[in-house]
Specification:
Length: 174
């Protein structure tokens, strides 16, 4: 289970009102920072409801990969082309379902609360963070919630030529 995300220098994954304009400080275009290689390995997604609300307004680009939407809402709008499944339980209970479906490399998409749930369940295996050279001051954090200390080990650092951002790749230290 991997979390592939961009953040500001102060650990924010978006600005106020979920503003992502800080990403423009990264010169890499679509497919930059290893995104194309990463997405090619992904066979499923888990998305928080707020991220889903954002994603639903764009064309579905993840093919037939199943997507689990984490929510406690009564209704979630479907997205054309998405193999969507609603999940409202504990993230720890979701993992056996993902494994039972044969999924081997899952991308967690969402805010700090969603990532915090995976950290609390001790089920976040890989963290891929592109750090943009900006401070936002406010906005959702990289991880939120209550979870015990979780250690990761740095496995790779990438910096594109002429780029001020950097990508850090970590694996869960067990």
């Amino acid at each position: 289970i991997a979390y592939y995300v961009a953040m500001s220098l102060d650990g924010r994954i978006a600005g106020p009102e979920h503003d992502l304009s800080f990403l423009q400080t990264l010169a890499q275009g679509p497919g930059g920072y290893g995104y194309d290689e990463f997405i090619a390995e992904i066979d499923g997604l888990v998305v928080g409801a707020s991220a889903w609300d954002f994603m639903k307004d764009y064309a579905w680009t993840y093919g037939e990969r199943p997507v689990g939407v984490l929510t406690h809402r009564d209704e979630i709008q479907a997205v054309e082309g998405a193999d969507m499944h609603i999940f409202s339980g504990d993230v720890g209970e979701l993992i056996p379902e993902l494994e039972g479906a044969g999924l081997e490399h899952v991308w967690v998409i969402g805010g700090g609360n969603v990532v915090g749930q995976f950290l609390a369940a001790d089920r976040l295996d890989e963290l891929i963070v592109t750090v943009a050279p900006t401070f936002l001051g406010r906005g959702p954090a990289l991880a939120d919630g209550e979870f015990p200390l979780r250690r990761f080990r740095l496995v790779r650092v990438d910096r594109a030529e002429g780029e001020d951002g950097v990508q850090l790749r970590y694996e869960r230290a067990r």
